């Protein structure tokens, strides 16, 4: 990192550094939540799943680093703040079930990694201004992990999209009953418990429609046909 010309006393920079650490801690947690949801629906994309699981391990280490630095400063992580809210927005972007979920997930993961890169870059300057050399070394490791993640996603975006098209075309050739099962399974993964009840309601309304039609044509069971 180039040494910036810092014109602020270390004791003035320290609370700004602590705020920055809390900020990135919240952001890392947003990222972890997002990744945890994403890896659950990547069975068709084992390469992406493996890489995101690896990044989840990075994430655990990054959170530990931040918590350690905050502890050394006599500080603790706090609740959400502005940057974390932005990270939270990115994280929820991938909540809704979508037929092109893998593409949205990859873009959101890429955007999240870049948001983290910018946040870590800024944090390094704050740490330097506060004179926290050891902390800077640890944060550089986290920054490198984020850069590696962002690069990997960018380098594999085309390949992932080709895989998405292949999977889509293979699934389109499968019988309708199997495709319906896929949709229900996807819904169940996205919102456990709700899909089963939706499927139940769908079956009930189909039954009502069919019995209604039966009643219109034939009368209700036990009734004389019109
Ligand atoms: Fe990340």
What does this structure look like?
This protein has 226 residues and is mainly alpha-helical. It folds into 2 domains: 10-172, Ferritin, core subunit, four-helix bundle (Ferritin), CATH 1.20.1260.10; 176-218. It is 79% helix and 0% strand. The chain contains 7 helices and no strands. The chain has helices at 10-39, 46-72, 82-93, 101-129, 133-172, 176-190, 194-218. It binds fe (ii) ion (FE2). Fe (ii) ion binds next to helix 4 and helix 5. Fe (ii) ion (FE2) binds next to helix 4 and helix 5.
List the keywords.
single chain, 226 residues, mainly alpha, Ferritin, 2 domains, 7 helices, 0% strand, elongated, binds fe (ii) ion
* CATH C-level class of the largest domain: Mainly Alpha
- Compute the separation of the termini in Å: 87 Å
Please tell me the overall pLDDT. 81
Radius of gyration: 25 Å
Proportion of residues in β-strands: under 5%
Q: Which ligands does the model contain, each kind named once? A: fe (ii) ion
CATH structural architecture of the largest domain: Up-down Bundle
Class by alpha and beta content: mainly alpha
What can be said about this structure in brief?
The protein contains seven helices and no strands.
Topology:
Layout: H1 10-39, H2 46-72, H3 82-93, H4 101-129, H5 133-172, H6 176-190, H7 194-218
The site of fe (ii) ion has 7 residues, from helix 4 and helix 5.
